[in-house]
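User: tokens in, sequence out, please.
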């Protein structure tokens, strides 16, 4: 097993049509307003940003995100990541009844020294930390979409 390699999937049921959900998710610089664990999104240009996230555990992860795919028709947003984590992440937004479903897939290798040092014993805790972050993100996005 590669202790530094992670695969995550989260599925968010959202009470708005896919176009509205997609529009909110494609505005990454707005994430810190509704997703507490996304601490900063600093854009370099239209396709690159420096992102810092921190969940319950006392460490932050910083990475450069590079836009790989932006396809509103297919409902797909994908980035490549490099820095404390290397890999990719993808949102796929589809219709579901009167609302939508946003699926988040992420495949990364951890480079941050602290996470590598505690990779074996910390893995279950790191995965739980990610789940908590994703739950908070869904709650924040729903509240944001309902307020708009």
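Assistant: Sequence out:
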């Amino acid at each position: 097993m590669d202790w530094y390699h992670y695969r995550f999937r989260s599925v968010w049921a959202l009470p708005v049509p896919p176009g509205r959900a997609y529009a909110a998710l494609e505005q990454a610089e707005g994430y810190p307003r509704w997703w507490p664990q996304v601490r900063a999104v600093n854009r370099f240009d239209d396709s690159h940003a420096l992102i810092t996230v921190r969940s319950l555990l006392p460490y932050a992860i910083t990475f450069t995100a590079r836009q790989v795919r932006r396809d509103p028709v297919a409902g797909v947003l994908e980035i490549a990541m490099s820095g404390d984590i290397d890999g990719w992440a993808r949102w796929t937004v589809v219709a579901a009844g009167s609302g939508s479903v946003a699926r988040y897939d992420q495949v990364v290798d951890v480079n941050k020294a602290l996470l590598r040092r505690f990779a074996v014993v910390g893995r279950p805790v790191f995965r739980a930390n990610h789940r908590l972050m994703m739950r908070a993100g869904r709650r924040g996005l729903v509240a944001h979409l309902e307020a708009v």
